[in-house]
Amino acid sequence: MSRQYLAWGSADNAHTVDIFSLAVTDKQILSASGAPSLKVHSTTETDFPLVQSIDGAHTLGCHHVVTDFKGARAVTAGFAGELKVWSCEDGYWAADQIATANLANVKVWAIALSGDGQYLAGVSQDGRVGVWDLSADGTQIRDHETKGSFGTCIDLSPDGRFIASGHENGAVYIFNTETGRMPFSLSGIVKPVRAVAFSPGSKILAVAGDSKVIVLYDTSSGEQIANLSGHSAWVLSLSWSSTGEYLLSSSFDGKVKVWSIDSKSCVATHSETEKAVWSVKWLPKNAKSEAFATAGANRSVAFYREATGG
Amino acid sequence: MALSYRAATASSAEVTEEASVRAYIDNTLCALFHELSLPPAVGRPSVTLRRRTNATSYRINSVTGALEAVGPEAPYRTYSWPGSSASEAWRFTVIIRILAVIDEAMRTGQMISKRDIYYIDPACFRSQSVVDGVVDDLAYTIGVERAAFNVEAAGKGLITGSFILRQESQVVLDARSSSQDNLIPRLQDEDEIDIFGTRWILVVEKEAVFHRLVRNNYHTTALAGKGIIVTVSLIVINHLENVVNKNQGKGYPDLNTRALVHRLVIISSAENPRRPLPIYALVDGDPDGIAIMSTYKYGSVAHFHENARFVVPGLQYLGLRISDAAMNPHMLTNANLLTLTARDRRKVASMLHNSPILGVDGPELEWRVELQRMLMLNMKAEIEILYEQDGGLEGWIDRKMFRQV
Q1: Which residues carry out catalysis (chain B) (predicted)?
Q2: Mutating which of B12, B337, B360, B403 best tests the A interface, going by the most A Cβ atoms within 10 A?
Q3: Residue B347, CB half-sphere, CA atoms under 13 Å: how many?
Q4: ipTM reported for the complex surpasses 0.90
Q5: pLDDT at B234
Q6: Is the bond into A205 cis (omega within 30 degrees of 0)?
Q7: Which of A232, A252, B219, B387 is close enough to B161 for a disulfide, judged by CB 3.0 to 4.6 Å?
Q8: Is residue B5 among the annotated active site residues?
């Protein structure tokens, strides 16, 4: 069974260079690119107007942006190796100088923020996984060593119990945040992992990368649940719908796919571009229908919504 | 060659090498400023070098595998300013100027050759051997390889294709003959050049790739017509430099090569102003590849005062991009992509930070993005990856040239 998602509009040429990362709040979408400024577009109006440009945020460009559930805090990671913390009041983002200064010595590549915005998880180029408490002066509360392979991606489970990190050598590690133990190291992938994402119920971890296959793991047992095959290029980004029914993925050849978790099959494919789609994100569910955003080497943020049939 | 050995162990060694060079430069300059701030009667600006011995015997270091000199400990020599003689003051000046060039090269991540340094101020340096000596003494004093401060042995340009050079009506170079290496000479203003309706110029980073194209007669058989192929050969001339050099095989162009490419563009646009000769760069998909292309197009930090005479503003980026390697439908395998080294990542950051060419308001946004994509994927690709694909390297260049025209 296939589903239809209609082009809903786009923020054309939102950036002058590749957009590498997207983050959403209930009313906004933040985009980070190879240019110094971060852009904030409103998702409450269907022409998706630019509501704020945070100029000069990262001189060398920015590769990761993450937000908390409330949309009160964001953290960005720049190509010079620096992290910045931002806070939002009445829809306007401002630099959180103190929290940023607290993280001045944190050297990580990929980052994830807990739902309440208190904990920042990060994985470094030498594969170290750390957690920092932003409400305790950025104190590091977890430090896990792995086998030293470049940490390409990281996620925190919505229930706060797990951290998963993906690495260049194909390794995926899951850490228990309470005990600090590593119950699983997921094997079976040998090519670089580019995305890890916990389902909303924290029961499934989706993993994908240069093997082009998306692998679903059960987070309580570490068992493989399914392999989702269909992409013909490296998978760069994953995002779960708010209900956990659908998984969104994007690849280096510009394809965006929606997968049904029930049927373990691809229910929609979009190929509006041949250029890399670096990031995809479901928007928080509104009353009407599910919608998602995509962005990458074509430098625009494109929006799609589910066809509801009236 | 010991090249691969060096690359494998590069990351940690380079950090310390870079740090010791930085520390030496910083300490020397700080001490200098301190002395200069003192009253003239008291202040005594100076710099101390460890002179290399004139060793007559060598051995292979059993740990590093490198050739090294056997002999007594090298003497230290301090040069101060104004010093006891005019000669000492001059020596002091030369050392400080070279330190400043190295400082600049390291901060911008560009490679320079000893020859480049000499041409910054021939009047001051007096001869190439003075520069060579000071650079090597500096490396020896700090205890690093010369490559640690981005100074490399001078390369030599090679050219093949529809090109004849005459000096005083005598043919001194006929590059249509591909049976031998045609070394690019130092051009004189009055030299006559004939390019016989050449349709394109291709600048290639790697000598091995150049030789393959020449062997396959690509300069006469290309789909786009007859062309000229240029590269830089890095033959280390001085046998004393037979140490492990991490930059061997990198095709940063010397001034003669840049001057020739520049001249070819001038000649072709004079012949046909409406349709200037397309000129392409084929470089590795790594930070050095972009830096080499940048040197051909915009010049090098070592030649700020001369760059305007050698620029090639029309140079087009033929490849290699990561996407050429990863997404090409003609590619039989993409298993040959490589992981960036720690040096590569630092070099990209340093290039993005220092080069106005790569700024977000600069002229080369696509280069900026390609460097960022390398960081995102932590990958680089070498031109040789194209050998394996359908139609080979030649077929790929044919397709790319047509797409870019």
Answers
A1: 119 (o-(5'-phospho-dna)-tyrosine intermediate)
A2: B360
A3: 25
A4: yes
A5: 67
A6: no
A7: B219
A8: no
